[in-house]
Design a protein that fits this description.
This is Tubulin--tyrosine ligase-like protein 12. This protein is of the alpha+beta class. It contains 23 helices and 24 strands.
Length: 692
């Protein structure tokens, strides 16, 4: 590659690098030249209690005087990192050394003599295999209970358990020796293998925690199977040189990723000094992302590196202040118009024309009074699966399945903000933080939980993604904070004690119709009258494995969306669910009709706030008259806490209702006739809804 071509291809990355370093960088990239070792060296325990990077060159480094390439030791994604570590012992060994990780050997527990002389288990909670119990009971000529205690006391070692049972003055030493020779070798090997596997898992668990203090990230574009370009994030850990740089609020170096398009596409990092650094001086960089400006948010971000007690106290105070403010908000009551039927629209001398880009709508539209058309201009009713922007082009009387600014409820951070503004803290909404704007109170909440011995579990989600994409569960502070670096996200308290169905976690998907008509028919200046209704039929999404508060990267244990991957999907009709639920939880919870009423009330509260709050926080009417009539259907996901308290998890835009149409063939027909009675019998359609 020629230098001019290099400049053209990499111009956006080079813009932030001093121009006098462009050509040296070009030369080093072309030669794959890692010459930092000629200028720099690693120190251990000087001045940090880990590795740090120092200048060894005589005369030191000059500001903008040189630039160094840094290789990447590991590039990964959170969802695949554990599997990569399991498959690559050399990488585990390298990262263990870089991160200065050690695993304590299991301490031996000294035997305690029972005052009564009765043999008791020192480890009563230790699980032992039943077949081992039966073997020891048979060979030792004791009861299974006695054999189990011996195995627990000897931590599963069969030979040691037998010796503890049979070693007495009349003991047959030769027989025991033969037994040991027969089964002891394999037992010993099994025990050693289990110990090695446990140590391996412990090391990987520590790497999975520590990696967030070392990892950096960059975005890249990919083309999905539909031809759409989307951005994805990669996490990487620099080699020993880059990973040894210390943090400073006044750094003397810049360290940043550089994606080189030369011999293919290769990712490096680059380091160059922005201050003079004398020989022996430590190289430092600012760990905090450049978009974080205010001091309290910087302290929150740096808490994962420094564990500063003064900063922790300040962050806890910030959390307590915010919590107090949220608790002061007084909820309001904003009832919707409750009409069992709407006035019949003027009949058409033709079929109602429907234009749609939504596959499940086109496939399931069977009403005789409705015909599909292939032009937006011809349509009386438009139904889009993608965001619609051209509201000004709609004509009088046209109906469309979107409202302007409905992202106030469908974007997760906006929904949380709306609920807080309207109601403060409510039981039907989990504590939620915007990682971009509310990092300080989130970290304060985390530290407060620690101080009060409450377990921290947080589920992190992108602002606007469905189908369970890029959702993780975090227990440690470092990965929780670092999630903000890969795009806008929220952190929400994980429901640790959900109601279970046959031992498994579940959530419920409701379809909600928000229908808007002009208060005075034909007069756009009068604004909208809103109707809110919940479809009576809902569907159940079940995890595939029994629920427990561990193995948080096990998707089938902690997540319920199974229809977009290679998972088993449980099909369960809502009527069967209600019957089974009431039987399983009889006497523990309310009747389902009462739980459903609570769910409806929570849904109503969200949209009551949305239709009252002005834009951009809500859906409130704009100043300009609107000649069209909007409606929208939303997918509302609800979970139940262990006291059957509903929690609205999220509100989804343009939900995929293929499953609803299979469960109820009249599903779409009912929606269309309620939205526009010219499509069919509106009263029949309304029977499928609870009108709120």
């Amino acid at each position: 590659m020629e230098y001019k071509q290099f400049l053209q291809i990499h111009q956006y990355q080079l813009a932030s690098i001093p121009e006098n370093l462009w050509e040296p960088l070009f030369q080093k990239l072309g030669q794959d030249l890692f010459d930092a070792g000629e200028y720099l060296e690693l120190h251990y325990g000087d001045p940090l209690d880990r590795y740090s990077l120092h200048v060894k060159k005589e005369g030191g480094l000059k500001k903008h005087g040189d630039i160094f390439l840094v290789d990447h030791a590991w590039t990964t994604k959170p969802e695949t990192s554990r599997a990569q570590l399991l498959d690559n012992p050399q990488l585990v060994e390298r990262l263990t050394s870089m991160m200065d990780i050690s695993v304590d050997e299991e301490e031996e527990v000294e035997e305690e003599a029972a005052d009564s002389g009765e043999v008791v288990s020192k480890f009563p909670d230790l699980e032992v295999d039943q077949s081992m119990v039966e073997l020891v009971a048979s060979q030792g000529n004791v009861t299974e209970e006695r054999a189990k205690i011996a195995l627990q006391n000897e931590k599963g070692d069969i030979i040691a358990a037998l010796m503890s049972l049979t070693l007495h003055p009349d003991h047959d030493a030769e027989g025991l020796k033969n037994l040991e020779n027969a089964i002891g070798g394999q037992v010993k090997r099994d025990k050693e293998a289990k110990a090695a596997e446990k140590k391996k898992q412990d090391i990987i668990n520590k790497i999975m925690v520590e990696m967030w203090k070392y990892s950096q990230t960059y975005e890249y574009a990919v083309v999905d199977p539909s031809g759409q370009t989307k951005k994805e994030s990669a996490w990487y850990i620099m080699d020993e040189v880059g990973s040894s740089m210390a943090h400073s609020d006044t750094p003397n170096c810049v360290c940043a990723p550089f994606i080189y398009v030369g011999r293919g596409t290769v990712s490096y990092s680059i380091i160059y000094p922005i201050e003079d650094i004398p020989k022996g001086g430590a190289l430092t960089r600012d760990f905090v992302p450049v978009d974080i400006k205010d001091p309290i948010t910087r302290k929150a971000y740096l808490q994962i590196y420094t564990e500063d007690e003064d900063a922790a106290a300040e962050l806890i105070a910030a959390y307590e202040s915010k919590k107090s403010e949220d608790n002061k908000v007084k909820p309001f009551d904003q009832p919707f118009v409750k009409t069992s039927a709407r006035p019949q629209s003027k009949a058409l001398d033709r079929k109602l024309r429907l234009y749609t880009t939504t596959e499940w709508v086109a496939t399931n539209c069977k009403l005789p009074n409705v015909e599909l058309v292939d032009s937006e201009d011809q349509a009386d009713l438009l139904w889009f699966s993608q965001d619609f922007k051209d509201f000004d082009k709609l004509t009088k009387g046209q109906k469309i399945n979107q409202l302007e600014n409905e992202s106030c409820v469908t974007f997760k951070h906006n929904l949380a903000s709306l609920v807080k503004a309207a109601y403060g803290t409510v039981p039907w909404s989990s504590t939620t933080y915007n990682l971009t704007t509310e990092l300080a109170p989130l970290v304060g909440n985390y530290l407060w939980n620690q101080e009060h011995e409450r377990r921290n579990l947080w589920i992190v989600k992108p602002w606007n993604m469905a189908r369970g994409l890029q959702i993780t569960i975090q227990e440690e502070l470092a990965p929780l904070v670092r999630q903000r670096d890969t795009g806008p996200k929220i952190a929400q308290e994980y429901i640790q004690t959900p109601v279970l169905y046959e031992g498994r976690k579940f959530d419920l998907r409701y379809i909600v119709l928000l229908n808007a008509t002009h208060k005075v028919e034909g007069d756009p200046s009068q604004g909208y009258e809103f109707q809110l209704m919940v479809y009576k039929m809902f569907w159940i999404r079940l995890a595939n494995q029994p629920f427990e508060l561990q193995d948080f990267d096990n998707y089938e244990k902690h997540f319920t969306v199974m229809n977009y991957g290679n998972y088993n999907l449980t099909q369960l009709l809502y009527t069967d669910f209600i019957k089974n639920f009431e039987k399983e939880h009889e006497g523990k919870h309310k009747k389902w009709s009462e739980i459903q009423a609570d769910i409806n009330e929570a849904i109503k509260s969200i949209f009551a706030a949305a239709v009252v709050k002005p834009q951009p926080q809500g859906l409130g009417a704009q100043d300009k008259p609107q000649v069209y009539e909007p409606f929208s259907i939303y997918g509302i996901d609800v979970m139940l806490r262990d006291d059957a308290q509903p929690v609205v998890v999220e509100v989804n835009f343009s939900p995929d209702c293929t499953r609803a149409c299979k469960y109820d063939p009249e599903f779409l027909n009912n929606i269309l006739t309620v939205v526009d009675p010219r499509a069919g019998d509106v009263n029949k359609g309304l029977e499928a809804f609870n009108v709120l």
